[in-house]
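Internal QA ticket QA-208
Title: Verify multi-chain structure generation after dependency bump
Assignee: T.L.

Test input:
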Amino acid sequence: MIPHIMVQAVLRQSVSGLYTDLVTRPTGRAVRENIERDLAPGTIAVMDFTGVGCLDYSCADEIVAKLVRDKVKVLLLRGLTEAHREAIEPVLAGAGLAVLCERPDGALEGLGASEPAPALLDELVERRLAARNPGGSIRFTAA
Amino acid sequence: MTRLVEVPTQFDDRSFDQFAAAYAQATDGERLLFDAHAAEWASPYGLVGLLAAGEAAARHGERPLLTAPANPDVVSYWARAGFFREAGDLFEVHGKVPRTRPAVESDVLLPVTPVRAAEDVHAVVSTIQQRASAILSSELGLDPKATMGFAMALSESCQNIVEHAGTGGWVAVQAYNWRRKLARRVVVIAVADAGVGFRHSLEPTQAKRFGERWGDAAALEAALIQGTSRFRDPGRGQGLAGIRRYLARWEGKVAIRSGTARIAIVPRWDDDVPLKDGLPAFPGSQVLLIIPEQESGGGGGSSQQ
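Actual output:
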């Protein structure tokens, strides 16, 4: 079973108030620690950003980069806005890390450093969690 | 003994060094009188910088005095910008100050707001997204998607206080017509604190690397240009790098003053110098971000400045 993390719900559990923005290191740390509690090391996880407002670089690093670096094997992000991508991409690229991102049309693509991304896609295909479309794109099939 | 510190009549980042020079003359134990009676205009940078000076002065002596601007329009504007709400806690204020609430519908996108903890940054980001979106897209001609980047830049600027200053600070955001430089609308973010400053914050991890060059200018260069942080965590130092990327995309400007130095990423429309050292010492850090109306954008709108 692949864990699906609804980031906005975790944010609400993690910090007091009704914030929809993922900003500041302490907030990012609280959210990540909440997520980590339910994740086995080396797992494959889906993280859904639907409903999340602003995501700053500190939170992108504190949540996404640290989960990829220390906890998960493959992280698939969905529900990303362009602004979310703009925060996550340089943070991952600067650390030589990558995640997979599900585009609105369902196709998967790498986000972050270009080198590790193909191996992440291969991992999902090998585990039959994703399949290649006739057009060559790869779609997540485990959801 | 009371020492007079004159507030420049046009108080912004350009005249700030004149203000800092007067402030730097003070010695411990002296009571300071900040004289703004002749002030005709102050940018958000001037307002938050004045609060930082007040906080630092109170730490080293008696509660400082502040003479409010004599011009009713100016003092009213300072009140609407939220300045006196904060100044009342720091200064013994003299002069006629209107009991105006900080503006809610105007070019004051974010009145002078204290930043002490992560919760304050959340509140600031939430407020700015509600209020800045229309101005950024309709008046500055920025892509509506740029609003989120603006909130990110604001968040990271404020976090410098929470993470590095060792004390609280203030942020203010305003939009106005910038006739002097551009003849275009701009949005200005100003953040100031009277904390430890960049040199002190980075000294334990960076001083050795710079050797004899180490000082305020080298610390600013390390932070803004090289993206270094006092934390050894490999993901640190993202904030200022992100701000630079955002401003480069929208032809904006960032300038940071700390201690005796000031560094700037200078866009083509400006003639500022990239690095100044040997300035009059001033406590903490003062950050200025300017995002101009895009040349193909809509523009227009009323101005208070």
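Spot checks passed. The two ends of chain B are 36 Å apart (CA to CA).
Status: verified.
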